[in-house]
Amino acid sequence: MTTVSTSAAPATPMINRDRIVDWLGIAPFMIFAAMFLIIPTLYLVAGAFLTPEGDLTLKNIVDLFTPSILSAYWISIKVSVASALGGALIGFFLAWAVVLGGLPTWVRSGLLTFSGVASNFAGVPLAFAFLATLGRTGLVTVLLRDWFGFNLYSTGFNLLSFFGLTLTYMYFQIPLMVLILTPALDGMKKEWKEAAQILGATNGQYWRMVAFPILWPSLMGTTLLLFANAFGAIATAYALTGSSLNIVPILLYAQIRGDVLHNANLGYALALGMIVITGLSNLLYILLRMRAERWQK
């Protein structure tokens, strides 16, 4: 009679310690995102459908279609579109020059370093910088008047206007475009251009038929990101123009914190509209970014 001895299999631990460590590593980020992004967003969405007494209502949503609020949305959209298109156009040529234009390496490193700083330079410091430079008594304005006899403000220019705010926004829009588009231009393979040249394509035909179709998702996606970036900005606009320019972030601030227009729930509805618009822009950006990455693999 033979006996078969079987060794007991090692017991599988009920708790994976490595997995616990992994979750603990991202726990601070998840807590931070929940406290300062997810929960406040849900609070705003819920408040948009409530009265000050806590009753359900659609009046706040209906009030978004009043002429003054629609005008604020329209001005915000125009400023965002103008600064996004301007930033995308200038930023594209800057990125193209440092990546494919044959400029020295130090120019690229210097531009990217400056872009990393300038893309985050916004709010009150940026507004003060433009007022000190292009304001009615700004440095550039005074130099143009005293040295060249050119009065900038006699041409109709006004920093505290639609054009002035668009110009100010472009200060951080252009560097952001450079930072995001540079990796896409770096991903353009030399073999594609060489193959086009072997087949007899000119440089213009290569860009029109090969390069631009590949870069188009990145260009469009980044432009949408610039739009969302400008649409949600408030500190720069408020510090620069105060309440002279009726854009949505300033109107929202007046509804929630103002003494005259105080209506917190209408402010929540305004915020909900901004969330929808910027959310759609970011969603389209993510989809276009995924398509661009597939092309460049």
From TrEMBL:
Keyword Transport: yes
Compartment(s): Cell membrane
CDD domains in the cross-refs: TM_PBP2
Chief location: membrane
Domain of life per record: Bacteria
Cited InterPro entries: MetI-like (IPR000515), MetI-like_sf (IPR035906)
Transmembrane segments: 23-50, 56-75, 82-103, 123-144, 156-185, 205-228, 235-256, 268-288
Membrane topology field: Multi-pass membrane protein
UniProt keyword list: Cell membrane, Membrane, Transmembrane, Transmembrane helix, Transport
GO annotation terms (biological process): transmembrane transport
Record PROSITE patterns: ABC_TM1
GO CC annotation, single: plasma membrane
Start and end residues of each ABC transmembrane type-1 domain: 73-285
Matching PANTHER family: INNER MEMBRANE ABC TRANSPORTER PERMEASE PROTEIN YDCU-RELATED, INNER MEMBRANE ABC TRANSPORTER PERMEASE PROTEIN YDCU-RELATED-RELATED
Family per similarity comment: Belongs to the binding-protein-dependent transport system permease family. CysTW subfamily.
Name of the molecule in the record: ABC transporter permease
Annotated organism of origin: Rhizobium grahamii CCGE 502
